[in-house]
Amino acid sequence: MLWNVLRGEQMKLKRSPVWLAFFILPILPAFMGTFNYLQNIEILQDEWYSLWTQHTLFTCYFFLPATIGVYCSYLFRLEHTNHNWNCVMTLPAPVLHLYLSKLIMASVMVILTQVWVGVLFIVSGKLSGLVGPVPPELFEWLIYGAMGGIVICGVQLCISLIIRSFAVPVGIAMAGGILGIAALSKGMGAFYPYTLLSLGMRANSPGGPMACSLGQFLAGSLSYLVVSTAAAIIWLSNRDVAAE
Amino acid sequence: MRAILLEFRKIRGRKIWVTIAALFGVQCLWGMWAFRDMSAKELSQGYIQCLYRFSVFNTIMMPMIAAITASRICDLEHKGQTFKLLLTAMPAGVLYDAKFICASLHMAAVGAAQAIFIIVMGKAAGFTEPFPLDHLFYYLITTTFVTVTILALQQVFSLLFSNQMVPLVIGITGSFAGLFSLFLPPGIQKGVLWSYYGVLTQVKMNWDSETKIVDLQYIPVDWSGYLLLAGAFAAIYLTGRWCFTRKER
Prior knowledge:
- The structure holds 2 protein chains of 2 kinds.
- By secondary structure, chain A is mainly alpha-helical.
- In chain A, about 75% of the residues lie in helices and about 0% in strands.
- The longest helix of chain A has about 35 residues, at about 50-80.
- The mean pLDDT of chain A is about 85.
- Chain B has helices at about 1-10, 15-35, 40-45, 45-80, 85, 90-125, 135-160, 165-180, 185-190, 195-200, 225-245; strands at about 205-210, 215-220.
- Chain B has a two-stranded antiparallel ribbon with strand order 1-2.
- Chains A and B meet through helix 2, helix 3, helix 4 and helix 8 of A and helix 2, helix 4 and helix 8 of B.
């Protein structure tokens, strides 16, 4: 059944330009971050690691959470309009599958974005004339970054399910990302969903270990995914649909 | 005037101000966090620091606030499919103007709230710098003008595309471009609409790489920047209005 619901989600997104946002957005920090790195090369002396901070710092705190917010809002927009909740809730499919299919679609987009970020990073480094080898930790940064991004997807999908507006969840994602800076500075990064992305990607300390233990990171990620999925399923099971 | 009042009546139950107030609240929280435990030297540069940091922070936040406000005010027509109905009662240009004025008043309110917050924070933290009324007034005018120009662009996309993903992605991308362009030479900055919070700021940061000392100073108004922004505003607003009035529905 999950496979069928997933195919339905795929059909809804067919020919939608939504993937363009995830394609274009990482190009900006790659281009401007590399430019900034080259301008300040005498201060930024850690080569690949310095370049990574320029590529990821602002992206992780401000812009990727907001872009994920846009994507999650988009995934629920079709249901929120044209009385479609009536149709969706009468489908012979468990609500868990309805929610998981959206989470999987959003997660796939986050994983592809991470691959694209990695490719842009390597290309930028080579074009900048960095002669050393690509950091062996790059794969790890991208994997953990994807995990953090999937957690944001879970939380944002839950918010977009409850709040029927397209723009408000995006605002919440933006605010969440900014408040994440305070959470990180207080050492609470692993306990706050919007900082898991920057923690995982080592946005401000690429050369060192994660700012929290791996156990904390995994526990935080899993907890938020389970809680957001449970909240969405309870909401879908108990609330009567309101269709516009 | 009736069209503007109508816009306010349409949004009375949508609580648009709640989203704006929440994002402004985040800005205030950040301000209070950034200006805690200030030294005597920092207190003597309190207002100038506020004006500088708020300009940078506006580059990140205000484009998103403008995008969200424009999207919410325009999306209600897309959702309700009310354009055809409305345009039998009023010309498309009037509807466009009314929506823009309604959203702009919200933006002006955010600018005023920021200025009040800076004053209150200055009193509460005990800034020892003389109160710079003229610079604060200039900050209010600049913040509102730049935000309203960005809002004009957002409104064009929010009205022309029923899929609100498009204007919001433009808002995020613009905000991103604005923030990054603050690190680029002034000539490039002037080519990016979202970077004008930084271009028109009256505060300049001097960083001595030898001594690692950061110092802030007031600089004269960049009138050429203002003129460029005014030109951009006129071009965006008139082109957007022209496209909207001619769009087939």
